[in-house]
């Protein structure tokens, strides 16, 4: 049944939602509820029956449960578990199996009786799958049903592996995975081609029978689907919307996952706002202009009143003045001088005029992010005479196709032979590589020699791109941060050496400008890790180095998505010639052209994405009534 929502702020939300400041805070809270359930059952001499989920989302919850077991004596001896799903076919000892996942993150670290663990069997014969699924349901029913079911949510809106088209009364069964689901899993399998096309999953009807259901979601990647699940109409196209029918469900989110809910994204529609927050005012006026397709300077008091912004018009009007203020703020973000314009009034410009020639360092998480995401700005900084450095934070050696390695090895052997040198050792390594690749398992770590060749390929491409942008070799820096050098898509956590290497480079350059990738949607999460390393280094330097006080940090995007208009503080228009130069710089990265190893959801080539996104930003400015670029 639909929930009666009496709170104005949450009136668009069709089920209960709890929002925490971070995924860690949310995970600790959920773990505490699970622990309380287990202890309450134990006190009554009963067994707790838990439905468990896999994937990245519950990892921190399981870590907290393990901590409670080791430090607070939480026992799992009387706990019975049923996992939501498993890929099919899938061997239980495979690195990607949910059996491996659960034992690695929970079961192998607590005192649970292994006889009480139930995970769908990815090895059962296809003829026996139906019988297996019926028995799985029967075992849950014989125990009186699930006390609590944990859920994540996929970007298709799936819960478990109940993909779009699943029925609300579905039971445990074999399903075909959605293409987007397989794409999201490709990192774990070393490529989408290796991801199984099917899975065994509990049904939505099975999930509904649980006495308590907690759906968890973290990060901005989940925000669009969370909005559909919480505020959208019930539909088989988004299976999670069926949870609106349950009286026992709660969505537990971090702030990022909740960010597109109405009360956070457009709060003026559901409550009075503090319009002293200029960013909120800017966002609201841009939203209004976009919603009714009017330039900012043509917005009227009636437009404000009819679209939930009467409070702003009354408190800070007349609206004509509001429009002019916001229009001018956006106009002042546009500059052809990303390093500041010498001998000019900089009070209305995004960058300082002085010093006229700045030391700038562009941090590039992968060896191509610099030219893809800010190639035009990069070229313009160099053209305008600034002392520009580029620092490639990682080798990017996991993102090169295996056959490229053979191609470069063949070149090296031929060249070595051509100058009369002995290529015997190279030929031996080449044959070892040729023998290795056909036997290579999904996500298997490459040999050291292969990783080196892949790193060298990306290094030479980066040098070529930076030189094309106008840098000399002594201004091109390769950091090879240790957190990345694992040979796996799953990286190590950030270590002290990562921060110290960054501090060392910053002390050497002493920049007035830092450009860092603020595009955190990359498939492997490398951008966010690299950004946090820069922040950690600057925080340490701030206490001891005077130059840090005069250093501005700019965030750039483009490879994966763009900034919303209201967040943009500097927009650099490019001439047609500069667009071509940026494109040519991107073309230097041949290993990433046509079909990169990690394309994400976007099928377009990186140079096409970059041009489409910058063109879209220009068009957004134009629609708001600003100059057309």
From TrEMBL:
Q: Which residues form the signal peptide?
A: none
| Domain Glucosamine/galactosamine-6-phosphate isomerase residue range list | 23-244
Instruction: Output the GO biological process annotations, alphabetical, semicolon-separated.
Output: carbohydrate metabolic process; N-acetylglucosamine metabolic process
Give this protein's Gene Ontology molecular function annotations: glucosamine-6-phosphate deaminase activity
Q: Which InterPro entries match?
A: Glc/Gal-6P_isomerase (IPR006148), GlcN6P_deaminase-like (IPR052960), GlcNAc_PI_deacetylase-related (IPR003737), Glucosamine6P_isomerase (IPR004547), LmbE-like_dom_sf (IPR024078), NagB/RpiA_transferase-like (IPR037171)
TM spans (from-to): none
- Entry-linked SUPFAM superfamilies: LmbE-like, NagB/RpiA/CoA transferase-like
Fetch the CDD domains from UniProt. GlcN6P_deaminase
Protein name per UniProt: Glucosamine-6-phosphate deaminase
Task: Name its species.
Answer: Mucilaginibacter pineti
């Amino acid at each position: 049944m639909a929930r009666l929502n009496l709170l104005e702020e949450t009136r668009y939300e069709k089920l209960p939602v709890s929002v925490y400041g971070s995924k860690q805070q949310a995970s600790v809270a959920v773990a505490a509820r699970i622990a309380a359930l287990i202890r309450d059952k134990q006190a009554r001499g009963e067994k707790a029956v838990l439905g468990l989920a896999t994937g990245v989302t519950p990892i921190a919850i399981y870590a907290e449960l393990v901590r409670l077991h080791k430090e607070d004596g939480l026992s799992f001896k009387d706990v019975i578990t049923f996992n939501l799903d498993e890929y099919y076919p899938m061997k239980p000892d495979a690195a990607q199996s949910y059996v491996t996942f659960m034992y690695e993150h929970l079961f192998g670290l607590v005192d649970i009786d292994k006889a009480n663990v139930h995970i769908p069997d990815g090895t059962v014969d296809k003829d026996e799958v139906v019988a297996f699924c019926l028995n799985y349901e029967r075992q849950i029913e014989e125990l009186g049903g699930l006390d609590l079911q944990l859920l994540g949510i996929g970007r298709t809106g799936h819960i478990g592996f109940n993909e779009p088209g699943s029925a609300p009364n579905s039971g445990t069964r074999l399903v075909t995975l959605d293409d987007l689901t397989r794409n999201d899993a490709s990192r774990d399998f070393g490529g989408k081609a290796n991801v199984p096309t099917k899975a065994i999953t509990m049904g939505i009807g099975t999930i509904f029978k649980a006495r308590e259901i907690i759906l968890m979601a973290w990060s901005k990647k989940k925000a669009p689907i969370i909005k559909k699940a919480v505020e959208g109409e019930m539909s088989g196209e988004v299976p999670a919307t069926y949870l609106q029918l349950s009286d026992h469900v709660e969505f537990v989110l971090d702030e990022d996952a909740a960010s597109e809910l109405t009360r956070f994204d457009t709060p003026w529609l559901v409550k009075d706002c503090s319009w002293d927050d200029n960013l909120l005012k800017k966002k609201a006026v841009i939203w209004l202009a976009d919603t009714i397709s009017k330039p900012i300077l043509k917005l009227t008091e009636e437009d404000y009143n009819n679209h939930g912004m009467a409070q702003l018009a009354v408190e800070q009007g007349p609206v004509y003045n509001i429009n002019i203020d916001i229009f001018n703020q956006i106009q002042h973000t546009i500059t052809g001088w990303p390093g500041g314009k010498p001998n000019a009034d900089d009070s209305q410009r995004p960058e300082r005029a002085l010093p006229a020639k700045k030391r700038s360092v562009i941090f590039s998480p992968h060896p191509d992010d610099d030219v893809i995401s800010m190639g035009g700005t990069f070229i313009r900084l160099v053209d305008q005479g600034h002392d520009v450095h580029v620092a490639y934070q990682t080798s990017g050696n996991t993102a090169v196709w295996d056959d490229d390695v053979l191609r470069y090895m063949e070149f090296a052997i031929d060249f070595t032979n051509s100058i009369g040198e002995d290529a015997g050792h190279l030929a031996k390594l080449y044959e070892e590589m040729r023998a290795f690749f056909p036997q290579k398992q999904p996500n298997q770590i490459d040999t050291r020699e292969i990783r080196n060749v892949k790193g060298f390929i990306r290094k030479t491409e980066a040098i070529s791109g930076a030189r094309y942008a106008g840098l000399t070799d002594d201004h091109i820096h390769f950091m090879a941060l240790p957190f990345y050098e694992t040979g796996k898509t799953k990286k190590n956590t950030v270590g002290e050496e990562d921060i110290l290497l960054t501090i060392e480079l910053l002390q050497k350059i002493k920049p007035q400008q830092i450009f860092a990738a603020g595009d955190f949607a990359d498939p492997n999460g490398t951008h966010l890790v690299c950004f946090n390393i820069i922040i950690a280094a600057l925080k340490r330097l701030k206490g001891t180095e005077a130059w840090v006080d005069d250093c501005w940090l700019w965030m750039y995007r483009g490879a994966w998505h763009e900034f919303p208009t209201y967040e943009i503080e500097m927009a650099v228009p490019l001439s047609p010639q500069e667009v071509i130069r940026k494109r040519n710089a991107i073309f230097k990265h041949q290993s990433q052209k046509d079909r990169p190893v990690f394309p994400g959801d976007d099928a377009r080539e990186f140079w096409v994405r970059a041009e489409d996104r910058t063109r879209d930003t220009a068009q957004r400015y134009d629609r708001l009534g600003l100059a057309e670029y």
